[in-house]
Specification:
Layout (H helix, E strand, L loop, with lengths): L7 E2 L4 E6 L2 E6 L1 H7 L2 E5 L6 E2 L4 E7 L3 E5 L4 E6 L1 H5 L2 H5 L8 E5 L11 H8 L2
Antiparallel strand pairs: 1-2, 2-3, 3-9, 4-6, 5-8, 6-7, 8-9
Length: 126
Amino acid sequence: MNIPKNLKYAESHEWVRVEGDVAVVGITDFAQTSLGDIVFLDIEVEGETLDKGEVYGSIEAVKTVSDSYMPVSGEVIEVNQEAIDDPSIVNKDPYGEGWLLKIKMSDPSEVNSLLDAAGYEEIAKD
């Protein structure tokens, strides 16, 4: 299981990479492995402002559908259209080309409440 140390993690299996006041968000390697082959992403929130913990979309795999949650509050400034067009990118490269959202954070300090790699590893192995 790949858990990069430079990212922060939500208990709901999203990762966050901070770039200034923007959070790049995706699902973890653990999440995409658990879901299996991802076949559809339903993410239609570009331009919306959502709170931490709110559902921003769903991820459909061959055998299940899973909601995805905002790891931080803010305005969704970009949805990864390449991943929408080819959801298998999320399986192939969850921490790179398979990112899902870019969020202009309304409260960057919320990142401090997310897990580091070691904390997320504890959750992911349970």
